[in-house]
Amino acid sequence: MALIPATILTGFLGAGKTTLLNRILHEPHGFKIAVIENEFGQENIDNEILVQESREQIIEMNNGCICCTVRGDLIMGLTDLARRRAAGEISFDHVVIETTGLANPGPVAQTFFIDEEVASEYLVDAVVTVVDARHAMHQLDTYKEAQRQVGFADKLLLSKTDLVDEAAVQQLMARLRRINPRAPIVTSDFGKVAISEVLDLRGFNLNDKLELDPDFISAQEHAHEHKHVHDHDHDGHACGEHCDHEHHHHDHHHAQHSDNIAAFVFQSDRPFQAEKLDEYLGTIVQVYGPRMLRYKGVLWMDGADRKVIFQGVHQIMGTDIGAKWGENEARSNKMVFIGQNLPQDTFILGLKQCLV
Protein backbone atom coordinates (compact mmCIF):
# COMPACT_ATOMS: atom_id res chain seq x y z
CA MET A 1 0.00 0.00 0.00
CA ALA A 2 1.37 3.42 -0.96
CA LEU A 3 2.69 5.66 1.79
CA ILE A 4 0.66 8.74 2.70
CA PRO A 5 2.51 11.94 1.71
CA ALA A 6 2.80 14.55 4.46
CA THR A 7 3.48 18.27 4.09
CA ILE A 8 4.93 20.15 7.04
CA LEU A 9 3.63 23.71 6.96
CA THR A 10 5.61 26.17 9.02
CA GLY A 11 6.14 29.90 9.30
CA PHE A 12 6.55 32.54 11.95
CA LEU A 13 3.70 34.02 14.01
CA GLY A 14 1.29 35.91 11.77
CA ALA A 15 2.90 34.84 8.50
CA GLY A 16 -0.36 33.59 7.01
CA LYS A 17 -0.44 29.84 7.71
CA THR A 18 -3.96 30.03 9.10
CA THR A 19 -5.28 31.85 6.03
CA LEU A 20 -3.71 29.23 3.76
CA LEU A 21 -5.08 26.36 5.82
CA ASN A 22 -8.58 27.78 5.81
CA ARG A 23 -8.45 27.87 2.02
CA ILE A 24 -7.31 24.24 1.95
CA LEU A 25 -10.07 23.24 4.33
CA HIS A 26 -12.90 25.04 2.53
CA GLU A 27 -12.22 25.43 -1.19
CA PRO A 28 -13.48 22.82 -3.68
CA HIS A 29 -10.06 21.66 -4.87
CA GLY A 30 -10.98 17.99 -5.13
CA PHE A 31 -8.27 16.69 -2.79
CA LYS A 32 -8.93 14.69 0.37
CA ILE A 33 -6.54 16.26 2.86
CA ALA A 34 -6.16 15.74 6.58
CA VAL A 35 -4.93 18.93 8.22
CA ILE A 36 -3.23 18.43 11.58
CA GLU A 37 -2.71 21.32 13.93
CA ASN A 38 0.33 20.20 15.90
CA GLU A 39 0.22 21.52 19.48
CA PHE A 40 -2.62 23.41 21.03
CA GLY A 41 -1.77 27.10 21.06
CA GLN A 42 -2.92 30.54 20.09
CA GLU A 43 -2.88 29.86 16.35
CA ASN A 44 -5.89 27.61 15.90
CA ILE A 45 -6.92 27.03 12.31
CA ASP A 46 -10.25 28.69 12.92
CA ASN A 47 -11.74 29.30 16.33
CA GLU A 48 -15.22 28.73 14.92
CA ILE A 49 -14.24 25.37 13.47
CA LEU A 50 -12.22 23.86 16.27
CA VAL A 51 -13.75 23.11 19.63
CA GLN A 52 -11.09 24.03 22.14
CA GLU A 53 -11.03 21.01 24.36
CA SER A 54 -8.18 19.02 25.89
CA ARG A 55 -8.67 15.97 23.68
CA GLU A 56 -8.12 15.40 19.97
CA GLN A 57 -10.83 16.56 17.60
CA ILE A 58 -11.46 15.32 14.08
CA ILE A 59 -13.89 17.43 12.09
CA GLU A 60 -14.85 16.59 8.50
CA MET A 61 -15.27 19.54 6.15
CA ASN A 62 -17.81 19.82 3.34
CA ASN A 63 -15.08 19.64 0.66
CA GLY A 64 -13.84 16.24 1.81
CA CYS A 65 -10.99 17.52 3.94
CA ILE A 66 -10.49 16.61 7.57
CA CYS A 67 -9.32 18.92 10.34
CA CYS A 68 -7.57 17.28 13.28
CA THR A 69 -6.07 18.95 16.34
CA VAL A 70 -3.25 16.98 17.96
CA ARG A 71 -2.65 18.39 21.40
CA GLY A 72 -0.48 15.54 22.59
CA ASP A 73 2.08 13.34 20.88
CA LEU A 74 2.30 13.87 17.11
CA ILE A 75 3.29 10.22 16.65
CA MET A 76 0.10 9.08 18.36
CA GLY A 77 -1.96 11.50 16.28
CA LEU A 78 -0.47 10.29 12.99
CA THR A 79 -0.81 6.60 13.83
CA ASP A 80 -4.40 7.12 14.99
CA LEU A 81 -5.29 8.84 11.73
CA ALA A 82 -3.67 6.02 9.74
CA ARG A 83 -5.52 3.40 11.79
CA ARG A 84 -8.90 5.09 11.29
CA ARG A 85 -8.17 5.49 7.58
CA ALA A 86 -7.32 1.79 7.24
CA ALA A 87 -10.55 0.90 9.07
CA GLY A 88 -12.57 2.99 6.62
CA GLU A 89 -13.74 5.44 9.30
CA ILE A 90 -12.20 8.45 7.55
CA SER A 91 -10.79 9.11 4.09
CA PHE A 92 -7.80 11.21 3.08
CA ASP A 93 -4.91 11.02 0.62
CA HIS A 94 -2.53 13.63 2.01
CA VAL A 95 -1.62 15.12 5.39
CA VAL A 96 -0.73 18.75 6.08
CA ILE A 97 0.82 19.37 9.50
CA GLU A 98 0.81 22.93 10.78
CA THR A 99 3.52 23.72 13.30
CA THR A 100 3.16 26.55 15.77
CA GLY A 101 4.66 29.90 14.82
CA LEU A 102 7.63 29.52 17.17
CA ALA A 103 8.34 25.88 16.36
CA ASN A 104 11.50 24.36 14.94
CA PRO A 105 10.27 22.10 12.11
CA GLY A 106 13.25 19.76 12.58
CA PRO A 107 11.78 17.49 15.26
CA VAL A 108 8.52 17.27 13.29
CA ALA A 109 10.40 16.10 10.21
CA GLN A 110 12.44 13.64 12.28
CA THR A 111 9.22 12.03 13.53
CA PHE A 112 8.81 10.42 10.10
CA PHE A 113 12.20 8.70 10.38
CA ILE A 114 12.63 7.77 14.03
CA ASP A 115 9.26 6.08 14.59
CA GLU A 116 8.84 2.81 12.73
CA GLU A 117 5.05 2.86 12.74
CA VAL A 118 4.88 6.39 11.34
CA ALA A 119 7.57 5.56 8.75
CA SER A 120 5.58 2.52 7.64
CA GLU A 121 2.52 4.67 6.89
CA TYR A 122 3.82 8.11 5.85
CA LEU A 123 6.55 9.89 3.93
CA VAL A 124 7.52 13.56 4.09
CA ASP A 125 6.56 15.27 0.84
CA ALA A 126 8.00 18.70 1.67
CA VAL A 127 8.53 21.36 4.30
CA VAL A 128 6.68 24.50 3.17
CA THR A 129 7.42 27.76 4.99
CA VAL A 130 5.22 30.87 4.83
CA VAL A 131 7.26 34.09 5.12
CA ASP A 132 5.73 37.46 6.03
CA ALA A 133 7.23 39.99 3.59
CA ARG A 134 6.29 42.89 5.86
CA HIS A 135 7.96 41.62 9.03
CA ALA A 136 10.40 38.92 7.93
CA MET A 137 13.56 41.04 8.02
CA HIS A 138 12.99 41.92 11.68
CA GLN A 139 11.96 38.36 12.52
CA LEU A 140 15.06 36.92 10.88
CA ASP A 141 17.23 39.41 12.76
CA THR A 142 15.58 38.68 16.10
CA TYR A 143 14.41 35.07 16.23
CA LYS A 144 16.49 31.98 15.48
CA GLU A 145 13.22 30.07 14.98
CA ALA A 146 12.43 32.22 11.94
CA GLN A 147 15.82 31.40 10.45
CA ARG A 148 15.37 27.69 11.14
CA GLN A 149 11.96 27.70 9.45
CA VAL A 150 13.50 29.22 6.31
CA GLY A 151 16.52 26.93 6.43
CA PHE A 152 14.38 23.80 6.61
CA ALA A 153 12.09 24.73 3.74
CA ASP A 154 11.70 22.88 0.46
CA LYS A 155 9.51 25.75 -0.73
CA LEU A 156 9.01 29.32 0.54
CA LEU A 157 5.61 31.04 0.22
CA LEU A 158 6.04 34.82 0.42
CA SER A 159 2.95 36.52 1.89
CA LYS A 160 1.95 40.19 2.35
CA THR A 161 4.04 41.42 -0.58
CA ASP A 162 1.31 44.01 -1.21
CA LEU A 163 2.37 45.75 2.01
CA VAL A 164 5.95 46.46 0.93
CA ASP A 165 7.61 47.91 -2.16
CA GLU A 166 9.38 45.89 -4.83
CA ALA A 167 12.86 46.84 -3.58
CA ALA A 168 12.05 45.45 -0.13
CA VAL A 169 10.71 42.24 -1.68
CA GLN A 170 13.88 41.76 -3.72
CA GLN A 171 16.09 42.44 -0.69
CA LEU A 172 14.17 39.86 1.34
CA MET A 173 14.29 37.29 -1.45
CA ALA A 174 18.06 37.72 -1.74
CA ARG A 175 18.41 37.10 1.98
CA LEU A 176 16.16 34.04 1.86
CA ARG A 177 18.28 32.61 -0.96
CA ARG A 178 21.43 33.08 1.09
CA ILE A 179 19.89 31.17 3.97
CA ASN A 180 18.38 28.47 1.75
CA PRO A 181 19.38 28.38 -1.93
CA ARG A 182 17.51 25.14 -2.66
CA ALA A 183 13.97 26.35 -1.88
CA PRO A 184 11.95 27.98 -4.70
CA ILE A 185 10.10 31.15 -3.67
CA VAL A 186 6.51 31.90 -4.75
CA THR A 187 4.09 34.61 -3.61
CA SER A 188 1.04 33.66 -1.58
CA ASP A 189 -0.91 36.81 -0.75
CA PHE A 190 -4.11 36.22 1.23
CA GLY A 191 -3.49 32.48 0.99
CA LYS A 192 -4.03 32.60 -2.77
CA VAL A 193 -1.65 29.97 -4.05
CA ALA A 194 -2.30 26.93 -6.21
CA ILE A 195 -2.60 23.67 -4.30
CA SER A 196 0.11 22.35 -6.63
CA GLU A 197 2.51 24.83 -4.98
CA VAL A 198 1.88 23.20 -1.60
CA LEU A 199 1.18 19.51 -2.21
CA ASP A 200 2.99 16.75 -4.12
CA LEU A 201 6.21 18.75 -4.34
CA ARG A 202 8.44 15.72 -3.67
CA GLY A 203 10.90 18.20 -2.25
CA PHE A 204 12.01 15.99 0.62
CA ASN A 205 12.42 12.73 -1.23
CA LEU A 206 15.75 11.35 -2.35
CA ASN A 207 16.23 11.93 -6.06
CA ASP A 208 19.06 12.54 -8.50
CA LYS A 209 18.44 16.25 -8.85
CA LEU A 210 19.69 18.97 -6.56
CA GLU A 211 17.89 22.18 -7.38
CA LEU A 212 19.80 25.25 -6.25
CA ASP A 213 18.95 28.85 -6.84
CA PRO A 214 21.14 29.93 -9.80
CA ASP A 215 21.62 33.42 -8.35
CA PHE A 216 23.09 31.87 -5.22
CA ILE A 217 25.49 29.72 -7.24
CA SER A 218 26.59 32.60 -9.47
CA ALA A 219 27.14 34.85 -6.43
CA GLN A 220 29.26 32.19 -4.76
CA GLU A 221 31.25 31.56 -7.94
CA HIS A 222 31.88 35.29 -8.30
CA ALA A 223 33.15 35.47 -4.73
CA HIS A 224 35.24 32.35 -5.37
CA GLU A 225 36.85 33.85 -8.46
CA HIS A 226 37.57 37.07 -6.60
CA LYS A 227 39.24 35.16 -3.78
CA HIS A 228 41.53 33.22 -6.11
CA VAL A 229 42.25 35.92 -8.66
CA HIS A 230 45.98 35.88 -7.91
CA ASP A 231 46.25 32.12 -8.03
CA HIS A 232 44.17 31.09 -11.03
CA ASP A 233 43.22 32.64 -14.33
CA HIS A 234 39.54 31.74 -14.56
CA ASP A 235 38.65 34.08 -17.43
CA GLY A 236 35.03 33.19 -16.95
CA HIS A 237 35.57 29.45 -17.41
CA ALA A 238 35.57 26.47 -15.12
CA CYS A 239 38.92 25.10 -14.02
CA GLY A 240 40.52 22.43 -16.15
CA GLU A 241 40.94 18.80 -15.20
CA HIS A 242 44.34 19.45 -13.60
CA CYS A 243 43.14 22.29 -11.40
CA ASP A 244 44.11 21.36 -7.85
CA HIS A 245 41.48 23.29 -5.86
CA GLU A 246 37.84 22.53 -5.29
CA HIS A 247 34.94 24.83 -6.01
CA HIS A 248 34.02 25.92 -2.52
CA HIS A 249 32.52 29.32 -2.25
CA HIS A 250 31.96 32.20 0.11
CA ASP A 251 29.15 34.71 0.00
CA HIS A 252 30.25 38.26 0.80
CA HIS A 253 26.89 39.93 0.23
CA HIS A 254 25.35 39.90 3.69
CA ALA A 255 26.95 42.89 5.37
CA GLN A 256 23.62 44.25 6.56
CA HIS A 257 22.24 41.05 8.05
CA SER A 258 24.42 38.39 9.65
CA ASP A 259 22.32 35.24 9.87
CA ASN A 260 23.32 32.39 12.15
CA ILE A 261 21.70 30.02 9.67
CA ALA A 262 23.25 30.03 6.23
CA ALA A 263 24.05 27.73 3.34
CA PHE A 264 27.19 26.80 1.48
CA VAL A 265 27.86 24.60 -1.50
CA PHE A 266 30.65 22.14 -2.26
CA GLN A 267 31.31 21.17 -5.88
CA SER A 268 34.08 19.05 -7.34
CA ASP A 269 35.03 17.56 -10.68
CA ARG A 270 36.85 14.66 -8.99
CA PRO A 271 35.13 11.54 -7.60
CA PHE A 272 34.83 10.64 -3.94
CA GLN A 273 36.43 7.59 -2.38
CA ALA A 274 33.40 5.89 -0.84
CA GLU A 275 34.92 4.60 2.41
CA LYS A 276 36.59 7.91 3.23
CA LEU A 277 33.41 9.87 2.51
CA ASP A 278 31.22 7.54 4.58
CA GLU A 279 33.56 7.87 7.53
CA TYR A 280 33.81 11.65 7.22
CA LEU A 281 30.07 12.24 6.82
CA GLY A 282 29.42 10.02 9.82
CA THR A 283 31.88 12.06 11.87
CA ILE A 284 30.51 15.50 11.01
CA VAL A 285 26.92 14.37 11.56
CA GLN A 286 27.85 13.12 15.04
CA VAL A 287 29.68 16.35 15.91
CA TYR A 288 27.58 18.99 14.15
CA GLY A 289 24.26 17.17 13.61
CA PRO A 290 22.17 19.34 15.96
CA ARG A 291 23.29 22.42 13.98
CA MET A 292 22.85 20.81 10.53
CA LEU A 293 19.30 21.66 9.49
CA ARG A 294 19.22 20.21 5.99
CA TYR A 295 21.87 18.80 3.72
CA LYS A 296 21.73 17.04 0.40
CA GLY A 297 24.05 15.94 -2.37
CA VAL A 298 24.34 14.26 -5.74
CA LEU A 299 27.64 12.40 -5.58
CA TRP A 300 30.14 10.86 -8.00
CA MET A 301 31.77 7.82 -6.45
CA ASP A 302 34.98 6.40 -7.85
CA GLY A 303 34.30 3.39 -10.04
CA ALA A 304 30.50 3.72 -9.89
CA ASP A 305 28.32 4.12 -12.97
CA ARG A 306 25.37 5.45 -10.98
CA LYS A 307 24.86 8.62 -9.00
CA VAL A 308 24.70 8.35 -5.23
CA ILE A 309 22.13 10.55 -3.51
CA PHE A 310 22.35 11.55 0.11
CA GLN A 311 20.43 13.88 2.37
CA GLY A 312 19.82 14.42 6.03
CA VAL A 313 18.02 16.24 8.81
CA HIS A 314 20.17 16.89 11.86
CA GLN A 315 21.75 13.53 12.84
CA ILE A 316 19.54 11.42 10.58
CA MET A 317 21.16 10.78 7.20
CA GLY A 318 20.05 8.60 4.30
CA THR A 319 21.61 7.51 1.01
CA ASP A 320 20.23 5.97 -2.14
CA ILE A 321 21.43 4.85 -5.55
CA GLY A 322 20.33 7.25 -8.27
CA ALA A 323 20.16 7.10 -12.05
CA LYS A 324 23.06 6.08 -14.25
CA TRP A 325 25.40 8.82 -15.36
CA GLY A 326 24.60 9.77 -18.94
CA GLU A 327 27.05 8.79 -21.64
CA ASN A 328 27.88 12.42 -22.36
CA GLU A 329 27.02 13.77 -18.90
CA ALA A 330 29.78 15.60 -17.06
CA ARG A 331 30.34 13.77 -13.78
CA SER A 332 30.74 15.88 -10.68
CA ASN A 333 29.80 16.27 -7.03
CA LYS A 334 27.33 18.87 -5.82
CA MET A 335 26.45 19.21 -2.14
CA VAL A 336 24.59 21.85 -0.14
CA PHE A 337 24.66 22.27 3.63
CA ILE A 338 22.23 24.51 5.53
CA GLY A 339 22.90 24.98 9.21
CA GLN A 340 23.55 27.14 12.22
CA ASN A 341 27.09 28.51 12.48
CA LEU A 342 28.59 25.54 10.64
CA PRO A 343 32.40 25.66 10.18
CA GLN A 344 32.38 25.91 6.40
CA ASP A 345 36.16 25.73 5.97
CA THR A 346 36.34 22.59 8.12
CA PHE A 347 33.62 20.90 6.07
CA ILE A 348 35.26 21.88 2.77
CA LEU A 349 38.71 20.70 3.83
CA GLY A 350 37.37 17.37 5.06
CA LEU A 351 35.39 16.78 1.87
CA LYS A 352 38.44 17.59 -0.26
CA GLN A 353 40.40 14.94 1.61
CA CYS A 354 37.77 12.34 0.67
CA LEU A 355 38.32 12.86 -3.05
CA VAL A 356 40.30 10.44 -5.18
UniProtKB/TrEMBL annotation:
<comment type="similarity">
    <text>Belongs to the SIMIBI class G3E GTPase family. ZNG1 subfamily.</text>
</comment>
<protein>
    <submittedName>
        <fullName>Cobalamin biosynthesis protein CobW</fullName>
    </submittedName>
</protein>
<dbReference type="GO" id="GO:0000166">
    <property type="term" value="F:nucleotide binding"/>
</dbReference>
<dbReference type="Pfam" id="PF07683">
    <property type="entry name" value="CobW_C"/>
</dbReference>
<dbReference type="InterPro" id="IPR011629">
    <property type="entry name" value="CobW-like_C"/>
</dbReference>
<dbReference type="InterPro" id="IPR027417">
    <property type="entry name" value="P-loop_NTPase"/>
</dbReference>
<dbReference type="InterPro" id="IPR051316">
    <property type="entry name" value="Zinc-reg_GTPase_activator"/>
</dbReference>
<dbReference type="InterPro" id="IPR036627">
    <property type="entry name" value="CobW-likC_sf"/>
</dbReference>
<keyword id="KW-0143">Chaperone</keyword>
<keyword id="KW-0547">Nucleotide-binding</keyword>
<feature type="domain" description="CobW C-terminal">
    <location>
        <begin position="261"/>
        <end position="355"/>
    </location>
</feature>
<dbReference type="InterPro" id="IPR003495">
    <property type="entry name" value="CobW/HypB/UreG_nucleotide-bd"/>
</dbReference>
<comment type="function">
    <text>Zinc chaperone that directly transfers zinc cofactor to target proteins, thereby activating them. Zinc is transferred from the CXCC motif in the GTPase domain to the zinc binding site in target proteins in a process requiring GTP hydrolysis.</text>
</comment>
<dbReference type="Pfam" id="PF02492">
    <property type="entry name" value="cobW"/>
</dbReference>
<keyword id="KW-0378">Hydrolase</keyword>
<dbReference type="GO" id="GO:0005737">
    <property type="term" value="C:cytoplasm"/>
</dbReference>
<dbReference type="GO" id="GO:0016787">
    <property type="term" value="F:hydrolase activity"/>
</dbReference>
